[in-house]
Write a structure and sequence with these properties.
The protein contains 11 helices and 9 strands. It is an alpha+beta fold and 313 residues long. The strands form 3 sheets. Strands 5-6-4-7 form a 4-stranded antiparallel β-sheet. A 3-stranded antiparallel β-sheet has the order 1-3-2.
Length: 313
């Protein structure tokens, strides 16, 4: 009998990331099929619970270079050894037991404490919930954190990139005879552009270089690799031209620089991710509104008696 599990995946930045994660999950022992949706940032996995478990699947995602979000915990009163049975419950990432108290960590979007207690009872381990971490909308919280972080990175990139762009473009627009052209062509302007561009590369663009390095370590390439290589090459060459002009170009002490290319590209890519995050959040809110309309309880007939039970039981 196969189980189906949906895990949130964090850190993906393009469809290639989702494809790589999906390929690695499909190769994992016990997995019959896996689908990773980049738009929803979720992995839907069908697997044999006798051959693998949620912690193993989470580890596959982490080894690919990404992670899962929304880990919660619940404490249950159990009778007998319940760790092995708890780890087999879909969505459970870890379990520890001290006496009759079982602490279970699980992905909050896949299962709840009552569902874990019910699964343990079916496995022959009497259990009931003692205390449960207050649940929140993990996916919504993660999206809000991502949006705020991208917004700050974009503001920094936009504010610092604009003067760098003007310094690079004004000499071409005003012409060779204009006084501003002569000012912009001085070595001092190269130092100013270096100072303004460095925070954009480190703070706003740092995410691209970290993700590109992670992909490189896992023998893969994706969009972050492209952005990191392009902007990194422009920045490193331009910095060398400012710091060591005679080495870069022995024929002139003021070689051309391309700081504006690196800074503006990073600003635009961050803006694209910011707009994507906002659109994804709105879509998620609409889907949650629809899910919220489903019944929370079900009426079950047991031994001729009707009773209301929670859906997750």
């Amino acid at each position: 009998m196969h189980e189906r599990l949906t895990l949130p995946v964090t850190g993906m930045s393009c469809a290639a990331c989702a494809a790589r994660t999906e390929k690695n999950l499909n190769r994992a022992p016990g997995v019959s099929s896996a689908n990773v949706n980049f738009a929803t940032k979720q992995a839907t996995i069908e697997y044999d619970p006798t051959a693998t478990a949620t912690p193993d699947l989470v580890e596959v995602i982490r080894k690919t270079g990404f992670d899962t979000a929304g880990v919660a915990s619940v404490v249950l009163h159990v009778q007998g050894d319940a760790v092995g049975a708890a780890k087999k419950v879909p969505g459970v990432t870890g379990a520890t037991q001290e006496g009759d108290r079982l602490t279970v960590e699980f992905v909050g979007s896949t299962v709840q404490g009552a569902g874990i207690a019910s699964a343990l009872k079916k496995a022959g381990v009497p259990a009931h919930v003692l205390e449960e971490e207050e649940q929140e909308d993990w996916e919504k919280a993660a999206r809000e954190i991502e949006y705020r972080d991208l917004f700050k990175r974009f503001i920094v990139a936009a504010v610092l990139s604009l003067p760098v762009l003007l310094m690079a473009m004004l000499p071409h627009v005003l012409g060779d005879t204009h006084v501003i052209h002569n000012l912009m062509e001085t070595p001092l302007m190269g130092w100013v552009q270096l100072i303004l561009t460095t925070p954009v590369m480190v703070y706003s663009g740092g995410q691209f270089f970290r993700a590109a390095w992670s992909s490189f370590r896992h023998h893969a390439a994706e969009m972050n690799t492209l952005v990191a290589l392009g902007t990194g090459a422009a920045y490193v060459y331009s910095a060398a031209a400012v710091l060591f002009p005679g080495f870069v170009s022995p024929y002139t002490m003021n070689p051309p620089v391309y700081f504006e290319a690196a800074a503006v590209i990073i600003a635009l890519v961050v803006l694209g991710r910011l707009l994507e995050a906002r659109a994804r959040a709105r879509t998620g809110d609409a889907i949650r509104s629809l899910v919220g309309m489903q019944p929370k309880t079900a009426r079950v007939l047991r031994n001729g008696v009707e009773e209301d039970v929670q859906i997750d039981q």
